[in-house]
Amino acid sequence: MDFDMNDLLKQAQAMQEKMKKMQEDAANAEVTGEAGAGLVKVVMNGRHDVKKVELDSSLMSEDKEFLEDLLAAAVNDAVRRVERNQQDAMKNMAGGGLGGFPFPGL
């Protein structure tokens, strides 16, 4: 089996470029976390920045603690969705691994 260092370097560079693109896409992707059957929605990007919060108008008569609990649950749901999207992107990028060697744990 011939070993071509230039080919290996090209493959490593291509993998780096794919990783950088995946990280940029993941950072810019937005997800919506929900709580209270959709009464509270939180839009978050891949950097965990909250971009938008939506409260159903029917909640305006609820007490403060209830609203805080729903908001916390919606934020937590959004965080889990961001993390799941990032894990899925890594699995898709890894595919069968590098050079036939699978990445452990993916």
Describe the structure.
The chain is α+β, with helices and mostly antiparallel strands. Helices cover 52% and strands 17% of the residues. The chain is built from two helices and three strands, in the order αβββα. It has helices spanning 5-28, 64-94; strands at 30-35, 40-45, 50-55. It has a three-stranded antiparallel beta sheet with strand order 1-2-3. Helix 1 packs antiparallel against helix 2. The chain starts with a helix and ends in a 12-residue tail after the last helix. 8% of the residues are buried.
What is the CATH superfamily classification of the domain at 26-92?
Answer: Nucleoid-associated protein YbaB-like domain
- CATH top-level class of the domain at 26-92: Alpha Beta
In which order are the strands of the major sheet placed? 1-2-3
Shape: rod-shaped
Strand content: 15-25%
CATH structural architecture of the domain at 26-92: 2-Layer Sandwich
Structural class: alpha+beta
| Strand runs, count | 3
Series of secondary-structure elements, N-terminal to C-terminal = HEEEH
InterPro entries: YbaB-like_sf, YbaB/EbfC
Protein name: Nucleoid-associated protein B5T_03008
Subcellular location: Cytoplasm, Nucleoid
Main location: cytoplasm
